[in-house]
Specification:
This protein has about 525 residues and is of the alpha/beta class. It contains eleven helices and 23 strands. The strands form five sheets. Strands 1, 3, 4, 6, 7, 8, 9, 10, 11, 12 and 13 form an eleven-stranded mixed β-sheet that branches. Strands 14-15-20-19 form a four-stranded antiparallel β-sheet, with no helix packed on it. A hairpin with a 2-residue loop joins strand 14 and strand 15. Helix 4 packs across helix 11 and helix 9 packs across helix 10. The longest helix has 24 residues.
Length: about 525
């Protein structure tokens, strides 16, 4: 009897074991396709995931079903038909042919945007102006946020960490201030749900957000890849760590001495960064924090690139369009809109940068895109915040101006969205006349004084302060020191806060009329 009982137990275990082994794998969805998500209206809707090889997966939403078979890598993808805006919650059923299924609940359909960049766009609502009131009144359940978990990777990732949340006083404090104020106005003006994909990393650079293939395909960016290759080859972890320990020892001694004397201790040295894991290395943030979102349907992107890009500022005019073209090609949704916040005045002398004009070059490169890359825009911030504060807290005005651009250029609303932008110049004897776009409403100064921060140069290329006067929709610039002017610059410095505005109350952007027609050069950044 014992023998027969033992055999029975063994057979039962084998049956259970075989059943577990042969059980179909559960249909799996990426993190971005989950409860509370917002889908893009009036566009085909891509939905994807993973299942057993050869399995057929059917996705059903709003009474419409589409099926697809898994590929050799067990990935499947379907494209659902377009849907109009839908505020009433929907459920999406994802069912595999083997019988496994998933239900995605509380789905809305409206406008979806991706907010990306470093710390200023990551700056949370709870740290913005009037935060307590902003949070208390943030009852907008049809605004949804998905924040991508931070991850740098050497190869494109199939998925990321993150989940969708409804906007409420309990959740809004930790989301992007710029993203929230952007979404709130879109939601109010368009009357549809709004979804914000958020992918941020403080201090990040454009090349980290761009695929390796795109950077390698652009010859002008080869010096960046060469620099990284050399940097990695020369990196000696043991030697670097020993040097850091020695610096730390000297700091400890200096700190102890300062404490004894009642003085403030010196700043503690920062640990050395390992280039093999650096968040700045080319493509690493694209791989870990953008690739997992593709091809999620969206309307466009808002970006707020910052001081990290001073390191390669002389390549900004190539880096930014390379990233935009790369994302558009990979998403396969056409030339979707791409808005950029213009970084505000700030002293950059202590930042790693390519040269004294690095910050001006960085901001100028955004303006150059307006005439070379379709569906791009710049939200001016020359007058927002305190120039001595990097993370200024008035993100309301930043979000408001970014939304004005979107409403005017993407959604066809009639409203002003840009301050005066340099268009052309003409020399009239000993003075220069500057013509602007976005000046049809006229020009004025914020303080009633003549326009400030103009300089002018002759053939010697030495710039001198110049007097400026508004004449209609133009500005006339003159300097007694320069009888034969050939070039003008405006607010061409890190900290200039000019007083020139248009009649719509928006500030003029910096410019130079002596803009080079060839790449700025390949000089290496200073440390």
């Amino acid at each position: 009897m014992r023998h027969h009982a033992l055999v029975g137990v063994v057979v039962s275990c084998l049956i259970v074991s075989c059943g577990a082994t042969n059980a179909p794998a559960e249909v799996r969805l990426p993190a971005v396709i989950s409860d509370n998500m917002a889908l893009q209206r009036d566009q085909p809707i891509p939905i994807w995931g993973w299942a057993d090889a050869g399995e057929t997966v059917t996705v059903t939403l709003a009474g419409r079903s589409v099926s697809a078979k898994t590929t050799s890598d067990r990935r499947w993808q379907v494209t659902l038909p377009k849907l109009g805006a839908q505020s009433n919650p929907l459920e999406m059923m994802v069912r595999g042919s083997s019988g496994t299924s998933r239900v995605v609940k509380n789905v809305v359909v409206g406008e979806v945007w991706l907010a990306t960049g470093p710390s200023n766009i990551h700056w949370a609502v709870r740290r913005c102006d009037n935060a307590k009131q902003e949070i208390a009144t943030a009852r907008h359940p049809k605004i949804r946020f998905f924040t991508v978990g931070r991850k740098a990777a050497d190869g494109p990732q199939a998925d990321c960490a993150g989940s969708w949340i409804e906007c409420s006083p309990k959740t809004v404090g930790g989301v992007s201030g710029v993203g929230y104020f952007f979404a709130r106005r879109l939601h109010k003006d368009l009357g549809v749900p709004v979804g914000m994909l958020q992918s941020f990393w403080g201090g990040s650079r454009i090349e980290a957000w761009t695929s390796r293939e795109a950077i390698e395909a652009e010859p002008a960016l080869k010096p960046i890849l060469d620099w990284w290759a050399e940097h990695l080859a020369k990196f000696e972890p043991g030697k670097i760590e020993a040097g850091y320990r020695e610096k730390l020892k000297r700091w400890q001694q200096a700190a102890a001495s300062a404490k004894t004397k009642g003085k403030k201790p010196p700043k503690k040295p920062s640990p050395p960064e390992d280039p093999r894991t650096s968040r700045h290395r080319p493509a690493c943030l694209y791989n870990g924090m953008i690739a997992p979102l593709i091809p999620y349907g969206m309307r466009g992107v808002i970006s707020y690139q910052g001081l990290g890009n001073l390191f390669w500022a002389q390549y900004s005019h190539v880096l930014m369009p390379t990233m935009i073209h790369d994302w558009r090609r990979r998403w396969g949704q056409g030339d979707f809109p791409f808005g950029m916040v213009q970084p505000a005045p700030y002293p950059c002398d202590r930042r790693p940068k390519s040269g004294p004009d690095a910050y001006a070059l960085l901001r100028e490169s955004q303006l150059l895109l307006l005439s070379t890359v379709p569906n791009t825009g710049v939200a001016p911030t020359m007058d927002i915040g305190d120039p001595s504060v990097l993370h200024f807290t008035n993100k309301q005005d930043v979000g408001r101006r970014m939304t004005a651009w979107a409403l005017a250029t993407v959604y066809g609303r009639s409203l002003a969205y840009s301050g005066p932008v340099y268009k052309s110049m003409s020399v009239e004897g000993d003075r220069v006349r500057i013509h602007f776009s976005h000046a049809d409403s006229g020009l004025s100064t914020k303080d009633g004084n003549p326009p400030t921060h103009f300089t002018v140069a002759g053939r010697d290329k030495v710039f001198h302060p110049a007097a400026a006067a508004i004449e209609g929709t133009t500005v006339v610039v003159k300097s007694d020191t320069v009888p034969h002017p050939v070039a003008v610059r405006f607010a061409w410095s890190d900290t200039s806060v000019p007083n020139l505005f248009n009649g719509d109350g928006l500030p003029a952007s910096l410019f130079r009329t002596d803009q080079p027609t060839v790449p700025y050069g390949s000089s290496r950044p200073g440390k």
